[in-house]
Amino acid sequence: MAIIGFIGLGIMGRPMAKNLINAGYKLVVYDKYAKFDDLVSLGAEGAASNKEVASKSEIIITMLPNSPHVKEAILGASGVIEGVKSGSIVVDMSSIAPAASQEVGAALKAKDVVFLDAPVSGGEPKAIDATLAIMVGGDKAAFEKVKPILEKMGSSVVLAGDLGAGNVTKLANQIIVALNIAAVSEAFVLATKAGVNPQSVFDAIKGGLAGSTVMNAKVPMILDGNFKPGFRIELHIKDLQNALDTAHNLGVPVPLTASVMETMQALKTDGMAANDHSAVVRFYEKLAKVEVRK
């Protein structure tokens, strides 16, 4: 069984790494900003740098906040590129700009290392129960080699295309999720302001055409006033910025994405950047002077 290096042990990376340990894989772990004693206690080997992780692993997984963090961890001083062995596979499961994935992939290819971009969707709950949706871009043979590993972290693992396609797919996903949350927020604020019980509205429409995974996940949180982050607004802002940049570079208009981006920016200004993205409803609640609660 291959030794796996895992870099990035935050809200998402930590439970993903735990699922690999529980599946019987030997892990070498490192995070520049977070302690990982709990993973070591479960059997992982702790490393002192990204370089050390790479030198001790055959497959290296990164799960980091954004493009600059991935480039630093892989291409920077004491980075993966300094320790990685020829023939290794690096799988970046972060959500970053497709162009950044292609840049990192080109640098690793010069070292005879294959790079896959494999962002995920599902947030912390699905990271914990290993039911993430994983969308992958890159070499098919490398994908087939790491697919059994990815299947220990997700219930859906799909090769979307060449390198960068994974992150393009994730950007599409994040646009749909953001707009869905905004639509749910508008609708439930309207219903509540009209005097209709929002729980009844949810029960009535969730099985129809308007029903969605997003609605099923986020409306119960809204009704409870629970905005503890599974996926923080500030991270969705990051994804939407990558979507806007990519769309503009391609000449693709995305007006609805731009609109919900401004909504999230307003919430960030109001101090809610660390809240779950279901807190988009707070923007509409403030305007309508009503709260959507049980």
Short description:
This protein has 14 helices and nine strands.
Secondary-structure blueprint of this entry?
Blueprint: E1 4-7, H1 13-22, E2 27-30, H2 37-41, E3 45-46, H3 50-55, E4 59-62, H4 67-75, H5 80-83, E5 89-92, H6 98-109, E6 114-117, E7 120-121, H7 123-128, E8 132-137, H8 140-150, E9 154-161, H9 165-193, H10 198-205, H11 213-224, H12 233-250, H13 255-269, H14 280-288
Parallel strand pairs: 1-2, 1-4, 2-3, 4-5, 5-6, 8-9
Antiparallel strand pairs: 7-8
Helix pairs in contact: 4-6, 9-11, 9-12, 9-14, 12-13
Descriptive terms for the model:
6-stranded parallel β-sheet, 294 residues, 3-stranded mixed β-sheet, alpha/beta
- N-to-C CA distance: 50 Å
Secondary-structure element pattern, one letter each? EHEHEHEHHEHEEHEHEHHHHHH
The largest sheet, given as strand count, sense and whether it forms a barrel, is:
6 strands, parallel
What integer is the average pLDDT? 97
Give the proportion of residues in helices: 40-55%
Count of alpha/pi helices: 14
How many β-strands, per DSSP? 9
Write down the Rg.
20 Å
Oligomerization: single chain
Low-confidence stretches: none
Shape descriptor reads elongated
Helix and strand composition category: alpha/beta
Strand order of the largest sheet: 3-2-1-4-5-6
Strand content: 5-15%
Polypeptide structure, described:
- There is one protein chain.
- With 294 residues, this protein is α/β, with parallel strands linked by helices.
- It is built from 14 helices and nine strands.
- The chain has helices spanning 13-22, 37-41, 50-55, 67-75, 80-83, 98-109, 123-128, 140-150, 165-193, 198-205, 213-224, 233-250, 255-269, 280-288, and strands at 4-7, 27-30, 45-46, 59-62, 89-92, 114-117, 120-121, 132-137, 154-161.
- The strands form two sheets. It has a six-stranded parallel sheet with strand order 3-2-1-4-5-6, sandwiched between helices. It has a three-stranded mixed sheet with strand order 7-8-9.
- α6 links the parallel β5 and β6 (114-117).
- The model has no long low-confidence stretch (mean pLDDT 97).
